[in-house]
Design goal:
This protein is mainly alpha-helical. The chain contains six helices and four strands. The protein has helices at residues 34-53, 64-84, 92-106, 120-149, 159-195, 201-231; strands spanning 5-8, 11-14, 19-21, 32-33. A two-stranded antiparallel ribbon has the order 1-2. A two-stranded antiparallel ribbon has the order 3-4. A hairpin with a 2-residue loop joins strand 1 (5-8) and strand 2 (11-14). Helix 1 crosses helix 3, helix 2 (64-84) crosses helix 3 and helix 4 (120-149) packs antiparallel against helix 5. The protein is globular and about 60 Å long.
Length: 237
């Protein structure tokens, strides 16, 4: 059971990420948490997978491993081109890496580790990256004049509403992923707690949905919304 949830005889307690090291490097308030360590594990897993899939590649695929690697890359290239347009092909590698990073994090509960995306600071950081890319794309396509103009369209009095909407997007992006993942973890724990030793099949089916299907789906939704926000930030000078 992930440390976010503690089952006790009297009920279920939801805790935040475990603080492994407090005042890291002697700096007050700088902490090394369980979420950070698990993300290092995720990075290591992704590195191993990439090394395996990219080893001894041929011009013409000869192994299922290379075919699988080419299918994965082709899928994300097509997804980015379809959603954002071919002019955004420079985002292909980022979107693929973002999906894999979030998906593996979502699946860490299967290994008995804490799910990092059940930590709002993690999902908030990912949302901030998308927010920065949106502002970068708006500034690149519209220059300074177009960037400022985008906040007063269609009418000047829309300025405060446009600013609120600009910050609402990353907030919703972060809370959507966090809420869905923590909710799935809690519901799964409630099923285990309610049924206990009386049933095995129902908790297993619930785990299949909340731990696997939902993990993949939430990662996909996150990248789709990110692509939508970034590509819709085009503006004229």
């Amino acid at each position: 059971m992930p440390t976010a949830l503690m089952l006790a005889s009297e009920g279920i307690t939801v805790n935040g990420p475990l603080v492994v090291v407090d005042n890291l490097f002697g700096i007050q308030g700088l902490r090394l948490t369980e979420s950070i360590i698990v993300q290092w594990v995720v990075i290591a897993i992704l590195l191993v997978v990439v090394l395996i899939l990219s080893r001894n590649l041929k011009v013409v695929p000869e192994t299922r491993r290379q075919m699988a690697a080419e299918w994965i890359v082709g899928f994300f290239c097509e997804t980015v081109d379809t959603t954002m347009g071919r002019k955004y092909n420079r985002y292909r590698a980022y979107i693929m890496a973002l999906f894999c990073f979030i998906m593996i994090q979502n699946l860490m509960g299967l290994l008995g580790l804490r799910n990092p995306t059940a930590d709002v600071s993690v999902t908030g950081t990912l949302a901030v990256i998308t927010f920065c890319l949106v502002q970068f794309n708006r500034g690149k396509t519209g220059k300074f004049k177009g960037y400022m103009k985008s906040f007063v369209e269609p009418l000047p009095f829309m300025l405060p509403f446009n600013i609120i909407g600009e910050f609402a997007n990353p907030l919703a992006l972060a809370l959507r992923l966090f809420g869905n993942m923590i909710a799935g973890t809690v519901i799964n724990a409630l099923i285990y707690f309610a049924l206990g030793k009386l049933a095995i099949l129902i908790p297993a089916i619930a785990s299949l949905y909340f731990d696997i299907f939902s993990a993949v789906m939430q990662a996909y939704i996150f990248i789709m919304l990110s692509m939508s926000y970034i590509s819709s930030a085009d503006c004229e000078e």
